[in-house]
């Protein structure tokens, strides 16, 4: 690669290298030249000269070209690239774990079509953040953009491998769906990678035996322009088509995947969204029961600061240890490794599994829900209600010009009425007594935007709404 003719290469890298991944607008800060430099730098950071790096990509128009540019940079520095082609993000985790090789996935997840990005893993699907190597990758890539990538004596090679069938078999080995009652399931892939993985894992596309599932596909065509709706199920507007289809088809439930299919959202038979905290509690119970039956007396389960209070209550009632942690992909992965946790759940619908190298896997979470739901006769709405006893606000974002001032107003207003902790942003837990209903809220400043993110939970809807409205008034004053 020749040195670039334009200036500002390092400034471009600063804008696209985020806390846990690379993310930017295609053709602006994110170009083939930048990606090639990042490929070379990543190979250096993980010591891949003479070894292997897995490279996969989603269905965005720019993804195949970026994957090739990354491979050029990595092979120039001596790494052999295992190109697995079109895949979900959790497929790259599978390849990284099963091959014990570092991996790079080209995706912008749920972001609009104009974006792309890279999710990095060390061997064994270990996460990489700014503090654990991403900053070094960024800085070295800047050097390569300034001065060119120095080739090594023995450049690497590119091998193309299809891991989809092995991935599907591995997930089937972790959750047995063969004995559940027949279920009709609408799946909205959002034109993302779920359109590839769902037929392989839940259907027969990978050559596996049929399951007692009737899959009704919605937007399974791989299309990185997202012609139907954004592949971001966290936004309720993007669940509307799935909710309507579940009711129209008389389905038992619906599943919605984001663009790179590493997150899964669940809709019940009435079309109502099932809270991700309820999913976390359901999966936690299953994983706790499984490992306790194998002799693990006090397994650990991770949950972040904005999951429902019912999640740690469920974990502890099942005889496990609940560990509360900050929000964030790499942070959760790190805590999974540190504690040996069997499972980790985030309210954003990321679910992490020890038996999947501590990485997150939305498909695996969906399979646990199908297994639990399909082993009992009640409708999903009734099962979900058991795991959603409290009232949650959902995350509410407010644009705030002076974030520290808003933060201070909140602290002053609730001093004497709540206990505070600052594990992640500010969490205030009400100093309630007697028959007073409990409440808590968390306010987290965004790392990249002038936003405050609010989550509130109350023992009942009225309590939650009162706290929510008071805190929002303080934020937006």
Automatic annotation (TrEMBL):
<dbReference type="InterPro" id="IPR005846">
    <property type="entry name" value="A-D-PHexomutase_a/b/a-III"/>
</dbReference>
<dbReference type="Pfam" id="PF02878">
    <property type="entry name" value="PGM_PMM_I"/>
</dbReference>
<keyword id="KW-0479">Metal-binding</keyword>
<dbReference type="InterPro" id="IPR016055">
    <property type="entry name" value="A-D-PHexomutase_a/b/a-I/II/III"/>
</dbReference>
<feature type="domain" description="Alpha-D-phosphohexomutase alpha/beta/alpha">
    <location>
        <begin position="16"/>
        <end position="131"/>
    </location>
</feature>
<dbReference type="InterPro" id="IPR005841">
    <property type="entry name" value="Alpha-D-phosphohexomutase_SF"/>
</dbReference>
<feature type="domain" description="Alpha-D-phosphohexomutase alpha/beta/alpha">
    <location>
        <begin position="166"/>
        <end position="271"/>
    </location>
</feature>
<dbReference type="InterPro" id="IPR005843">
    <property type="entry name" value="A-D-PHexomutase_C"/>
</dbReference>
<keyword id="KW-0413">Isomerase</keyword>
<protein>
    <submittedName>
        <fullName>Phosphomannomutase</fullName>
        <ecNumber>5.4.2.8</ecNumber>
    </submittedName>
</protein>
<dbReference type="InterPro" id="IPR005845">
    <property type="entry name" value="A-D-PHexomutase_a/b/a-II"/>
</dbReference>
<comment type="similarity">
    <text>Belongs to the phosphohexose mutase family.</text>
</comment>
<dbReference type="GO" id="GO:0046872">
    <property type="term" value="F:metal ion binding"/>
</dbReference>
<feature type="domain" description="Alpha-D-phosphohexomutase C-terminal">
    <location>
        <begin position="395"/>
        <end position="473"/>
    </location>
</feature>
<dbReference type="GO" id="GO:0005975">
    <property type="term" value="P:carbohydrate metabolic process"/>
</dbReference>
<dbReference type="Pfam" id="PF02879">
    <property type="entry name" value="PGM_PMM_II"/>
</dbReference>
<keyword id="KW-0460">Magnesium</keyword>
<feature type="domain" description="Alpha-D-phosphohexomutase alpha/beta/alpha">
    <location>
        <begin position="279"/>
        <end position="389"/>
    </location>
</feature>
<dbReference type="GO" id="GO:0004615">
    <property type="term" value="F:phosphomannomutase activity"/>
</dbReference>
<keyword id="KW-0597">Phosphoprotein</keyword>
<dbReference type="Pfam" id="PF00408">
    <property type="entry name" value="PGM_PMM_IV"/>
</dbReference>
<dbReference type="InterPro" id="IPR036900">
    <property type="entry name" value="A-D-PHexomutase_C_sf"/>
</dbReference>
<dbReference type="Pfam" id="PF02880">
    <property type="entry name" value="PGM_PMM_III"/>
</dbReference>
<dbReference type="InterPro" id="IPR005844">
    <property type="entry name" value="A-D-PHexomutase_a/b/a-I"/>
</dbReference>
């Amino acid at each position: 690669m020749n040195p670039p003719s334009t200036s500002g290469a390092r400034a471009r890298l600063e804008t696209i290298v985020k806390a846990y991944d690379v993310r930017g607008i295609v053709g602006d800060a994110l170009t083939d030249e930048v990606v090639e430099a990042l490929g070379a730098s990543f190979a250096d950071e993980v010591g891949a000269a003479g070894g292997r790096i897995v490279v996969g990509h989603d269905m965005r128009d720019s993804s195949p070209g970026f994957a090739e540019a990354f491979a050029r940079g990595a092979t120039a520095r001596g790494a052999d690239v295992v190109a697995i082609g079109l895949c979900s993000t959790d497929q790259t985790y599978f390849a990284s774990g099963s091959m014990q090789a570092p991996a790079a996935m080209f995706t912008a997840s749920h972001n609009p079509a104009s974006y792309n990005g890279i999710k990095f893993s060390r061997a064994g699907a270990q996460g990489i953040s700014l503090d654990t190597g991403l900053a070094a990758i960024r800085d070295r890539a800047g050097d390569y953009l300034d001065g060119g990538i120095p080739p090594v004596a023995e450049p690497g090679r590119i091998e193309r491998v299809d891991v989809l069938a092995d991935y599907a078999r591995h997930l089937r080995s972790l959750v047995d769906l063969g004995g559940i009652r027949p279920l009709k399931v609408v799946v909205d892939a959002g034109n993302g990678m779920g359109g590839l993985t769902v037929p392989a894992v839940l259907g027969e596309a990978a050559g596996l035996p049929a399951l007692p599932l009737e899959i009704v596909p919605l937007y399974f065509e791989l299309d990185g322009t997202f012609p139907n709706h954004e592949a971001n199920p966290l936004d309720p507007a993007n669940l509307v088509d799935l909710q309507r289809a579940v009711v129209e088809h008389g389905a038992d439930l619906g599943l919605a995947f984001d663009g790179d299919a590493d997150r899964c959202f669940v809709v019940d038979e009435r079309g109502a969204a099932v809270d991700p905290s309820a999913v976390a509690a359901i999966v936690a119970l299953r994983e706790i029961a499984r490992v306790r039956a194998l002799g693990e007396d006090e397994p650990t389960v991770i949950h972040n600061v904005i999951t429902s209070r019912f999640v740690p209550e469920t974990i502890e009632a099942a005889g496990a240890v609940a560990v509360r942690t900050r929000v964030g992909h790499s942070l959760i992965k790190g805590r999974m490794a540190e504690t040996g946790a069997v499972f980790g759940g985030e309210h954003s619908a990321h679910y992490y599994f020890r038996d999947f190298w501590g990485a997150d896997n939305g498909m695996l979470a969906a399979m646990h829900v199908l297994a639990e739901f399909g082993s009992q006769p009640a409708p999903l709405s009734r099962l979900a209600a058991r795991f959603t006893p409290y009232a949650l606000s959902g995350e509410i974002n407010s644009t705030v010009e002076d974030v520290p001032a808003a933060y201070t107003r909140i602290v002053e207003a609730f001093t004497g009425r709540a206990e505070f902790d600052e594990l992640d942003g500010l969490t205030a837990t009400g100093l309630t007594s007697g028959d007073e209903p409990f409440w808590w809220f968390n306010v987290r400043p965004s790392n990249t935007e002038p936003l405050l993110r609010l989550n509130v939970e109350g023992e009942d809807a009225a309590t939650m709404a009162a706290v929510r409205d008071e805190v929002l008034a303080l934020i937006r004053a």
